[in-house]
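dude i think i finally got it to work??
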Amino acid sequence: MATKFLTKNSLKLFCETSYYLRFDGKFYKGTAQAKAGADGKNMEAPTCVDVTVVNSDGSAIANAGETAPTYIIVNKVLQDTITTSFPDNKYVGKSFLIIKHEKTAGKNYNLFDVGVIG
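look at this
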């Protein structure tokens, strides 16, 4: 009998680490409550996407079906990179190599290398 999980795991993307991820759904707004940022303005809920960690060739990892669903928080740079190359949600079901880079001096965001697997 298949397990139905009531929770999701959050996968934090660390800088200069390769992640092999299949995007299992569309980008969506997270459910986190809005909170005040450093400037006192309310920040909106983060954008998220459900993912599955896959092998470097895009194939499923053995026994992955027994783990809770996973999501990542997506910044605007990564989201724009994906949606520019795959408009109309055509990224859903595709696997990607994603590498997050350190913030550039004077910038408030990270850049990413993104490759399509398969």
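The mean pLDDT is 88.
im so relieved honestly
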